[in-house]
Structure of HECT domain-containing protein:
Amino acid sequence: GTRPVNLGQILIFTSGADKIPPLGFGHKPTIQFLHPEDHGNRIFPEANTCDVTLRLPLHGTYLQFRERMESGILQSPTFGFA
């Protein structure tokens, strides 16, 4: 309750749904980690809403991780708009 991002926003970011469907998701939700040696220096979270996959970047500190997670999720509704 003290952070700008809540679990509902994480669900929307990850799945595109604002609530869990009554019969669940068609795919089992998964979390993947974006290791720099495999994926370059990605700093923001990514999601595949078709597969219900949340991809988390790795950071040197929790503060960096939290700030970039919040920023990525909060800015995602405007992605693609200029």
Summary: The first strand starts at residue 30 and ends at 34. The two ends are 31 Å apart (CA to CA).
